[in-house]
Amino acid sequence: MRPTIKKSIDINHQSHLVFLVNDLTALKDFNFSEGEMEYIEGKTAKEQTLVHLNRLSQQVFIRFSTKAGDDENELVRKDGNSIFNKLKCEDASQLSLIDIIGDNQKAIALAEGIALSSYSFLRYKTEKKEDEFQLTEINLVSAAVSGCEIFELNNLIESVFIARDLVNQPVDKLNAQQLADFILEQSQLDGFKAEVFNKAKIEALKFGGLLAVNKGSIDPPTFTVMEWKPENAVNTKPYVLVGKGVVFDTGGINLKTPPGSLDTMKCDMGGAASVIGTMAAVAKNQLRLHVIGLVPATDNRPGKNAYVPGDVLIMHNGLTVEVINTDAEGRLILADALSYANKYEPELVIDLATLTGSAVMAIGEYGTVAMGTADNQTFTELENIGFAAHERIVKFPFWSDYDELIKSDIADLKNLGGREAGSITAGKFLSKFVNHPWIHLDIAGPAFSLKQSSYRGKGASGVGVRLLYQFLKSKTKK
What are phi and psi of 426, to 5 degrees? Predict the structure, then answer.
């Protein structure tokens, strides 16, 4: 359940209070006692930015902010997480957030940090589920934030929660067909179009990569096309988003064997979840942009007539691929989807995937590895929005030297390079299937966390939804 953020004019002094201020004098009109002011002054003298007053029946928080910029907004979001944790300890379900300084970005960041922190995945809890804490309402008192912005923020947070829910679902509750069914249901709720291709249609389209990965599964693959095309769209060529939908990855015949390596593989459809969440946000907020989302989906198992190293696949665009390792499956299903995306003659293609361990080794969970053929301006725009949302991207080199590493002796390509530059050679493989400006986002690091990560929580983070939504929104202003 997502807390509802509401725009308020009056302050409910009986509720729990959060003040956003830039100096102590701003608090003099809010009935703080002399002892409380002395306490607050003592904390701020030690450069503490968040002060908590426990009035027993009322929790009061003062967030001091005199700086500007993306880093400060992220610190504000993280303090929002601290506020939420205190409220949870006190079982406080409602609060009023008072923006005294009239700072649009900081007020939104603080509300966003509190709201995103409230996510929980309790679907399969049976004992004392009704006793779990839920924050239900945030009343935002700010002259700088409009009702439309609050409406937009509520929809964006809900869309992040959609992505988190999907990634947190175990595969016995979310196989490829169930994922496609969910998309169809969500499309009815939000108003975008969706069509699901069954196995027969996938075979007719000659999606050799998707069909190969699916050969070891008892469940059929799906390929889902989502489309949001308003009458007032500002673009003549669509933006196409592609998300890797491996609902569970065992590694196939190259079974994952390191201890713990299988434990979180329900998250291998994190790219698909991000695309679904983004499409939901775009439609909920009625962006004036033509956007298409593509989700190839299957699990990767070593059963039945599973594909094996040495197999040669014929892909959707006609290229042949020698299979070197069946655990390099994500790029195979993405390749077919990227090839299919060419039919739309897109303005830009962006794919998201929990694709390589190499990306995690390179930059950890702190950002997303990016590469591709889009121009520098497009990369810069996405980088800037990534810093603002704190869903940062790091552009990797894409030199032609790396092409040599995926050449096969017996086919056009092989699906795995060497140990070196693994995330880049995976991107190079994908590049052979897309004919238009394209960005590849490897979200393997930030998509899923085994420990609590501030307002991103534990488990699925929903990374990519806020980044892509704000990027697409920026395109409506041009």
Answer: -65, -45
Please, what is the average pLDDT of the chain?
96
* Look-up of token digits 């198992």: 301
Indicate the SS3 state at residue 153: helix
Min mean pLDDT across 6-15, 62-71, 100-109 is at 6-15
Rg (alpha carbons) of the chain, rounded to whole number: 24
CA of residue 44 relative to chain centroid, distance: 35
Q: How far apart are CA 299 and CA 285, in angstroms?
A: 32
**What is the topology classification, in CATH, of domain 4-145?**
Leucine Aminopeptidase, subunit E; domain 1 (3.40.220)
| Active-site position among 86, 88, 206, 256 | 256
Per CATH, the number for 156-475 is 3.40.630.10
Q: Write down the number of H helices and E strands in the chain.
A: 13, 20
Determine which one of 331, 392, 456, 473 is catalytic: 331
Q: What is the pLDDT of residue 26?
A: 87
Contact (CB, 8 A) for 172 and 463:
no
Q: What is the pLDDT of residues 394-408, one digit of tens each?
A: 999 999 999 999 999
Task: Report phi then psi at 2, rounded to 5.
Answer: -95, 135
Domain ranges of the chain: 4-145, 156-475
Sequence-ordered list of residues with C-beta below 8 angstroms from that of 403, at least 6 positions apart, any chain: 428
DSSP H helices, 401-450, are: 422-431
Give me the amino acid identity at 392. Answer: R
**At a CB cut-off of 8 Å and minimum separation 6, what does 180 contact?**
196, 222, 224, 295, 297
Q: Would the pLDDT of 225 be above 70?
A: yes
Contacts of 432 (CB under 8 A, 6+ apart): 319, 335, 412, 413
* Three-state secondary-structure class, residue 449: strand
Continuous segment of H or E residues that includes residue 394: strand 393-395
Active-site annotation holds for 392: no
* Dist. CA 206–CA 200, nearest whole Å: 10
Quick check: is 301 catalytic? Answer: no
User: Which structure tokens are listed for 424?
Assistant: 């880049």
Q: Is the dihedral of CA 359, 70, 151, 59 positive or negative?
A: positive
Closest CA to 72 of 63, 61, 82: 63
Report how far residue 107's alpha carbon sits from residue 477's, in angstroms, rounded to the nearest whole number: 23
Q: What is the pLDDT of residue 131?
A: 65
Which residue, among 277, 278, 249, 465, has the nearest Cα to 354 in the 3D structure? 249
Residues in contact with 393: Cβ distance below 8 Å, sequence separation at least 6, in sequence order: 367, 368, 369, 370, 382, 383, 386, 441, 467
Describe the strand order of the beta sheet including 320-322 as a list of residue ranges.
312-314, 320-322, 413-414
Say if 4-145 and 156-475 have the same CATH topology. no
Q: Give tens-digit pLDDT for 25-41.
A: 889 889 899 999 999 99
